[in-house]
Amino acid sequence: MHIQGLRSRYSAAQLHLHWGNQNDPHGSEHTVGGKHFAAEMGSFNPSYDKIFRHLQDVKYKGQEVLIPGFSIEELLPERPDEYYRYKGSLTTPPCHPTVLWTVFRNPVQISQEQLLALETALYCTHVDDPSPREMVNNFRRVQNFDERLVYISFRQGIILSVALAGVLGICVVLAVSIWLFRRKKSKKGDNKGVIYKPAIKKETEAHA
């Protein structure tokens, strides 16, 4: 698989799924414009049924199932050339900062049944555990930005960034100009109401 902007071709080795729960379906580990999504796995579409139909076979910890091969490109959203990219970290321990994240701009819709399967079908415990625990909220909270540089591949984002920077620059110039004007006016106002009188020299007579 080739991802635009990267020199090499890659083979997908793992797919990580993250989701919330039925009462709080905000399980994505990334936000776009401050917006969370119900789940995250790169992207979703009907082709994910090739994975979801096997969830019942790996319901409990330690279970495995063999899934017939398919092209990972079937799981990508429309316009995979539009994305955000930044240097970040793994979202699971030990969270090493060694990941080049590519977050696609366009999300893909999944059905309510598919989301419900993620939120209710899997458990963190073994099949014979007397206290089964549902696998929910398996996402890491959004981390601090820490002045990371985010590359935007699509033109609209670049234009918007330039426009915002221009507006911010104009606001700064206006703010400084207003501050200087008020400061100058304040200094002039300090002299109001002050009456200046000429100094009267007193001559001291010298007595012989």
Order of helices and strands: EEHEEHEH
Number of helices: 3
Strand arrangement in the largest pleated sheet = 4-3-5
Helix content: 10-25%
Name the beta content range: 5-15%
Low-confidence stretches: none
Per the CATH scheme, the topology name of the largest domain is Carbonic Anhydrase II
How many structural domains in the coordinates?
Answer: 2
Q: Please identify the top-level CATH class of the largest domain.
A: Alpha Beta
Q: By helix and strand content, what is the structural category?
A: alpha+beta
| Average pLDDT over all residues | 76
The radius of gyration computed from the alpha-carbon positions, rounded to a whole number of angstroms, is: 32 Å
Identify the CATH architecture of the largest domain.
Roll
The general outline is elongated
Distance between the termini: 115 Å
Query: Would you identify the CATH H-level superfamily of the largest domain?
Result: Alpha carbonic anhydrase
Largest sheet: 3 strands, antiparallel
Number of strands: 5
Pfam family, one: Carb_anhydrase
Domain Alpha-carbonic anhydrase: 1-154
Keywords: Membrane, Transmembrane, Transmembrane helix
Protein name: Carbonic anhydrase 12 isoform 1
